[in-house]
Design goal:
The chain is mainly α and 189 residues long. It has one domain. Helices cover 58% and strands 4% of the residues. The chain is built from seven helices and two strands. It has a two-stranded antiparallel ribbon. Helix 2 packs antiparallel against helix 3. The longest helix has 28 residues.
């Protein structure tokens, strides 16, 4: 089988249709974008600055007190009785909400830390798994709230892919580490 230069744009057969480098760059872009989202949300929680106004664009991020309110409402109040997900109400009401003074900072620094790891591509698969658990927890919070079916999968599926695929090897510190220490060629790098 003749292999084409991946950057030339010509391929000899369907096995070479997409180059490894192109896929690596695409997954690296996804990794960086997911990291920016987490980092920005964590930064908003750290600073309390929620509004984003850039030219004609207006948006907002969730700050700490809003995160608590959302958790309280979705788990206990939405639809009259809150979530129907087994055990979730107990976890939230017995552990998270009563200890929000601690958990608000766990959430904040998890978003900042995991976001930074994804942006720079360090331990990228481990960071992807942490992001997955973070987003999947939110999916469970919203699971029985009668929302649009795809409200949350667009957040947790991409980071689950990042937990499996070593995207930090392209445009990331993982790639630099592996060039210098090939013995690290395993999860979470």
């Amino acid at each position: 089988m003749r292999r084409a230069d991946p950057d030339s744009g010509s391929y000899s057969n369907t096995a070479d249709f997409v180059s490894t480098a192109a896929l690596g760059r695409g997954l690296a872009a996804l990794r960086i974008f997911a990291g920016i989202i987490l980092f920005a949300n964590g930064l908003a929680k750290l600073t309390g600055e929620r509004n984003i106004d850039v030219g004609w664009y207006r948006g907002f991020l969730i700050v700490r007190n809003e995160a608590r309110s959302i958790l309280q409402f979705e788990v206990n109040e939405r639809g009259g009785s809150g979530t129907g997900v087994p055990f979730l109400k107990n976890i939230v009401n017995d552990h998270l909400l009563p200890n929000w003074d601690v958990y608000q900072w766990v959430v904040t620094f998890t978003e900042i830390g995991v976001g930074l790891l994804l942006i720079v591509g360090l331990a990228s698969r481990g960071a992807g798994l942490a992001a997955f658990f973070f987003h999947f927890f939110l999916a469970l919070v919203y699971a029985s709230s009668n929302r649009w079916m795809f409200e949350q999968p667009h957040e947790y599926i991409p980071v689950l892919i990042l937990a499996v695929v070593p995207s930090g090897r392209f445009w990331g510190i993982d790639g630099v580490l592996l060039r210098n220490r090939p013995s690290l060629r395993r999860w979470p790098f």
